[in-house]
Design goal:
By secondary structure, this protein is α+β, with helices and mostly antiparallel strands. It has 4 helices and 6 strands; from the N terminus they run βββααββααβ.
Amino acid sequence: MQKSGSAVWSGTLKEGKGTVSTESGALRDNAYGFNTRFENAPGTNPEELIGAAHAACFSMALSNILGEAGAVADRLATKAVVTLDKVEGGFAITRIHLTLDAKVPDLDDRKFQELAAKAKAGCPVSKLLKAEITLDARLSA
């Protein structure tokens, strides 16, 4: 399986503008630029796109792992906070922190934590990234 995303950029780093799109059309010519990345202007940026991708991938991986354990989630709400730091030689994504709020009937917290950790390690996006990836997982009643 192969999926694609694309970007178009024009201009200098600070004054330039770009758009990002996905093969599926879920994103189509969404604006991004220096101001959306570093100055909180409207539009998207690579870090939030990576965060959304990681949150989605982790949630799907956990759903699969829960199913293998005989459990089905009523709800898996995952947020991924991506940290971009200035490092020697430029910038790097240094951390991603996943926060999960889950409702999974008939599953105790010990088993839930074990399965969530397995999903964090096994999610294809987690495997791709070199950043430290942490997780806070909470099982709601």
